[in-house]
Design brief:
The chain is an alpha/beta fold and 267 residues long. It is built from six helices and eleven strands. Helix 4 links the parallel strand 6 and strand 7. Helix 2 runs parallel beside helix 3. The protein is globular and about 60 Å long.
Length: 267
């Protein structure tokens, strides 16, 4: 088995080194990741500058390692189209420093990079640890990562589906197990702190307070806070089919009554 690993924290981040170390026990590993931190860049692409990929030494023994001067999505797209002559069996991203749950999923470069594997028809997983501590212990994530990868190999995600996995930052013997979850609902009370540089010019630093709106134990954030590893199957298809059908039904009625016009698809 050959696994492509990437992330959004940069190729030298502790999380990706830990992930490569864990998965190198069961597979051949290629690492292709940004050459610097690219957190919260979502699905950004570099379209106004050329990309450079540099072969680098990696702390863990791997088949190959490349640092890309672009985004996480750049890294995975470049790996799958140019740097890897044979497609990998899995695309795995992480281990992200900090959880990727609820609305944060939409901002995550780690999740977006994994979706590039999905778009190429390759089973893909994104891993995150619920801690921003620079000295966080990633070893407790080992069992969960191996379990999820084994599951993805035995029962691959359906076409178009990504497994997004969040791991609580607690000792391994305190983790309750794996729970299948859905995206939670939160609201950020966003704010920007105004500061001044040494020259007296203002700049702004984003901060926010999070309110959890949905306390259901089947949501990702509540599961992780309760000591469970959260696995959320995600799909890039964002269409709300209930609203889609309601609107179509409404326009169908108004068209029949002569009060509106709508172009229906050819059948």
């Amino acid at each position: 088995m050959h696994i492509l690993i990437s992330n959004d924290d940069g190729f030298s981040a502790r999380g990706i080194v830990a992930l490569a170390g864990i998965l190198s026990q069961i597979a051949e590993i290629t690492v292709v990741a940004p050459d610097r931190e690219q957190s919260a860049c979502s699905s950004s692409l570099s379209i106004h500058k050329p990309l450079r990929a540099t072969a680098v030494d990696f702390p863990v023994k791997v088949h190959a390692a490349w640092a890309v001067d672009g985004t996480p999505v750049d890294s995975v797209k470049l790996a799958l189209t140019k740097l890897m002559p044979v497609p990998p069996d899995l695309v795995v991203t992480g281990i992200n420093r900090g959880a990727n749950m609820c609305v944060d999923i939409l901002y995550s470069g780690t999740v977006a990079a994994a979706f590039e594997g999905v778009f190429k028809g390759i089973p893909s997983l994104a891993f995150s640890l619920d801690s921003y501590d620079s000295k966080a212990d990633y070893s407790a994530a080992k069992a969960a990562i191996l379990e999820c990868v084994d599951m993805a190999r035995a029962v691959p995600p359906p076409a178009g589906v990504l497994y997004n996995i969040n791991i609580p930052a607690i000792p391994a013997d305190q983790i309750k197990g794996l729970r299948t979850t859905r995206m939670g609902q939160v609201r950020y009370q966003d704010g920007y702190e105004r500061r001044e540089d040494p020259g007296g010019k203002p700049y702004y630093w984003l901060h926010g307070i999070m309110d959890v709106l949905d306390q259901d134990p089947d949501t990702d954030i509540i599961a992780v806070r309760s000591g469970w590893v959260s696995l959320t199957p995600l799909r890039a298809e964002l269409t709300d089919m209930n609203v889609f059908n309601q609107i179509r039904k409404h326009f169908s009625r108004t068209t029949q009554s002569g009060t509106g016009k709508v172009q229906e698809p050819h059948r």
